[in-house]
Specification:
Layout lengths: L7 E9 L1 H5 L6 E8 L9 E8 L5 E5 L6 E3 L18 E4 L6 H15 L4 E3 L4 H10 L4 E4 L1 H7 L4 H7 L9 H14 L2 E3 L22 E4 L2 H10 L3
Helix pairs in contact: 3-6
Amino acid sequence: MIGDDPRYVLVIDPIDGTRGAAADLEMACVSIAAARYGPAPSIADIEYAMLKEIKTGNWMYADVHSDGIESGGYPDPVPSVGKTDDLERMFWSLEFNGHPARLMLDAYGHLVDASANRGGVYVFNSASFSISRIITGQMDAYVDIGNRLLRDRPETEADFRRVGHGSILHLFPYDIAASVFLAERAGVVITDAYGAPLGDTLLLEIDPGNQRSCIAACTPRLHEALISEIRW
């Protein structure tokens, strides 16, 4: 926020995918979103959004003043959202950073078993990159359920803090601000793990109460199947 009468607030994650960038892999993005300035700006207030891949330079951009998504560097048109409905054949990414592996595998280990051979299972350690792969058509779904598990089962907080080295590390607003806007523009079905819209996520609050879960999928049927089949 710059000046005495700011019009916009910028939400920037300079490296979403720190571990991928450290390993010189592709799964790291600069994420930038701009929302109309106000007392409590939320994802629903975003008017401009951009993701740029750090290694390749590929980028995608959208705003409220024009239709579609602009992009550069990708070999195929963007968006190119897939049509997969089948849990066994989906290509999907999931999250383990700050998420106790036992809790995660209890919830969706059977889906990993079902899809690892006929589809594909990936851990990118970047929400922006994961969601953007659904927009490009390379992935069918993205699943980060940690925050729902904690909300449903508060007794797991100690486990989450243990693997987070004392902190709760679920989806922060800056992790998903730009990618949610772009995904919705592309026609991706993207919600929290309860199936509720992410628009009320406050952009400038990072406490555990404002952290989020996310399930994103290329089709409504796949999204519904994921929420139904994960063992909550």
